[in-house]
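Much of what follows relies on a compact textual record of a protein's fold. Each token is a code from a learned vocabulary of local backbone shapes. The record below shows the convention in full.
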Amino acid sequence: FAEFWAAYPRHEARALAEAAWRTVAQDEPTQAAILAAIERQRKAGCLVPGRSSTGRDIVPLPASWLRGRRWLDEPAVPPTPRFPI
């Protein structure tokens, strides 16, 4: 869990995240997939800390991300500009 906590960009509700980790990451392959997905989604811009226009965090709470099995999500493809810059 410590490695997940260090890698995930949002550090809130640790006890809930740890409980979710124990539930969903019971084996080594799943743990490795979760950690790889964090890096993949971060590089794709999906897990970049920030706030939306409404002031809410863009990155989900770690427990929500785990319970929703969000490591299985494909990273969003950034839109290509319509006009060259």
In short: Residues 28-43 form the longest helix (16 residues). The mean pLDDT is 86. The chain has four helices and no strands. The two ends are 43 Å apart (CA to CA).
